[in-house]
Design a protein that fits this description.
Blueprint (H helix, E strand, L loop, with lengths): L2 H10 L5 E5 L6 H15 L4 E6 L17 E2 L4 H10 L2 E5 L11 H6 L3 E6 L10 E4 L6 H11 L8 H14 L10 H12 L4 H9 L4 H12 L2 E3 L4 E6 L1 H6 L11 H5 L6 E8 L4 E8 L5 H8 L3 E2 L3 E6 L3 H11 L4 H4 L3
Parallel strand pairs: 1-2, 1-4, 2-3, 4-5, 5-6, 8-9
Antiparallel strand pairs: 7-8, 9-10, 10-12, 11-12
Helix pairs in contact: 2-5, 2-6, 5-6, 6-7, 6-8
Length: 339
């Protein structure tokens, strides 16, 4: 995003507008933190602002300031379509291709609103009039912080904005332990704490408040953990039957894939989750070092993301998806055993 773009955006935002903020399907901490952080910022300037998510988001994010104002497209389709079609500006956060929004894809494509993209994923699309795209950033929340800074408004960040942005940076950096965490990230976090973000409470609300069923499901997932030591790979599977047994709720499998990656000598970990309602297998992929799960997922599982964190899906059965995965792995033997 150029200085000229910022000048034009400041001019656009100088008078109240009808603004919609959207994020990707199955929104995570960064998606919710960035959309709500931007929402609170825009409301300060009297913009008529609405956050729309494609579907429900995890319970462990439902304490965030402003979350009760969010519309879910899958259950409030008509009102969401009206807002999207009447919007002056649509911000698209934490994704860069409309298909990542599920059933919202067509209405977003046909909307006449000016589009502004803020995202840190690879291979951005070309739909936005203004794009702030940077794959080196830890999170979209960090980018929203920089966006507010570029607009000259760091001083207006309050406790609500700070709290929301802290959530997304914390979750997308794995509590500040992933390689994407830079000294600049820590400086931003320090400023958000100074602005009122309660770091200890936020961490507790996101990570340390579990239901009994969620911990039982984790136990089931770890029981299903398999290791392919010669390819430095671990994978976990969860069937729909297992999810139902432990009363699965959205977000209950968040971070489970990282248990596989924590094993000694493992650099590639995957979790396969059956979703009978959508008729797909949802796949989360994680890696260490230079092994690109973004490339792997794009090549084989209709997905993508970052070098060390990506998502994908399969239309095969759970068993056949795992068989396909195992059959593909030997072709990556050199990359997985590279020192």
């Amino acid at each position: 995003m150029t200085p000229q773009d910022i000048i034009k955006i400041k001019q656009l935002l100088a008078a109240p507008k009808q603004i919609v903020i959207v994020t990707h399907k199955n929104p995570d901490g960064d998606a919710m933190g960035s959309t709500l952080g931007l929402y609170h910022y825009l409301k300060k300037y009297n913009h008529q602002t609405t956050v729309i998510t494609p579907n429900e988001f995890p319970d462990f994010l439902k304490w965030m300031p402003g979350e009760n104002s969010i519309l879910k497209y899958d259950s409030e389709t008509n009102v969401c379509n009206e807002l999207i079609n009447s919007a002056d500006i649509i911000f698209t956060l934490d994704f860069n291709e409309f298909h990542r929004t599920g059933h919202m894809e067509k209405v977003l494509e046909h909307s006449k609103a000016l589009k502004i993209l803020i995202d840190h994923h690879q291979a951005p699309g070309s739909y936005a009039q203004y794009a702030f795209s940077d794959v080196t950033m830890s999170s979209t929340c960090e980018m929203v912080y920089h966006f507010i800074d570029m607009l000259g408004d760091i001083g207006v960040i309050d406790v609500d904005i700070a709290t929301c942005l802290y959530v997304g940076i914390m979750t997308d950096t794995g509590s500040f332990r992933f390689p994407c965490t830079t000294s600049a990230t820590h400086k931003i976090i320090a400023n958000l704490i100074d602005k009122g973000a309660n770091n200890a409470k936020i961490h507790n609300d996101v990570y340390d408040t579990n239901s009994y069923e969620r911990l039982q499901l984790l136990g089931c997932a770890l029981t299903n953990l398999k290791v392919i030591p010669e390819l430095r790979t671990a994978y976990i599977s969860l069937s729909q039957e297992e999810l139902n047994k432990y009363n699965y709720k959205k977000g209950d499998t968040e971070g489970v894939v990282n248990y596989g990656l924590s094993l000694e000598n493992i650099i590639f970990a995957v979790i396969f989750i059956e979703d009978k309602q959508e008729g797909i297998i949802k796949i989360s992929l994680r890696s260490k070092g230079n092994f690109s799960v973004n490339d792997f997922s794009r090549a084989h599982f209709h997905g993508g993301g970052h070098i060390n964190a990506a998502g994908g899906r399969s239309d095969l059965s759970l068993d056949d998806t795992i068989k396909k995965f195992i059959s593909i792995l030997p072709a990556y033997s050199n990359a997985l055993n590279y020192e």
